[in-house]
Amino acid sequence: MYPVIYDFGSWKIRSYDAVLCLAIVIGMLMVWREARKAGYPGRRMVLCLVGTVICAILGARINGWLFWFHGNIAMLNLNVISTGNGMTAFGGLAGALGFAALYSYWNHWNVLRLLDIVAFTLALTEGIQRIGCFLNGCCYGRETTGFLGIYLPDTLGHWAYRYPSQIMTGIFCFALFVFLWKQRRNKPFEGSLMLYYLVVYNVGRVVIDFLRGDEPVVLGFLTAHQLTAAAIASIAAIVLYYKLKLRMKTLRPVELDDNVES
User: Could you tell me the residue ranges of all domains in the chain?
Assistant: First the structure.
């Protein structure tokens, strides 16, 4: 749509990069606010936020290389700052949650509590970031003649009626953020928001990615993104099931034996 906001000749301001920076700033402010409410120290939280952002960007870039190297060797560039192409959300998710967990453990913080905060923030930041995908023309949908089709380009500038997969993913992420935000005060256990996020987000990605037109099929009718999302959702769902089951057992009242005198 509008991949370049302003062209200075040798240097361009890309819409994707601008929106991603906005998403990062909003996400950092969100984590800072909630972490300070939870009692995390301010100075160390700054270092945690900076490290989380750096690891998220590096993880997204490295994961993008791994996903697309087999199909397009041109994606293998070393420009980490120019983020308009070659970044994958799964790598960013792993980088952000991984660094936050390690940093919390190293500082003897409540790891799962911080991961819950990072989880609903990731949903918000990706919802914003998908606006950048829409403007950039990446992550585009398959061509369609149905009523959901919108006249959009792909990354090569080919215009056609397509599923607006970027907007669909963005709306889904915003809805997931609202759900997690409402659940944050009534969590069944620490870490539950992170597990909810991993399950719901990845199930949604499997479904929505059927409408995308920029991903090659690698196994049957599934893409690499869908296989990754299905694996993450399955593992998180198993952990969530057993954690909730254990939680219910601890809350279940003890039944007295009729043969025991009270």
Answer: 4-181
pTM: 0.85
pLDDT in tens, 17-64: 899 999 999 999 999 999 999 889 888 999 999 999 999 999 888 877
List pLDDT tens digits, range 60-105. 888 777 766 544 443 344 434 344 446 788 888 899 999 999 999 9
Residues in the chain: 262
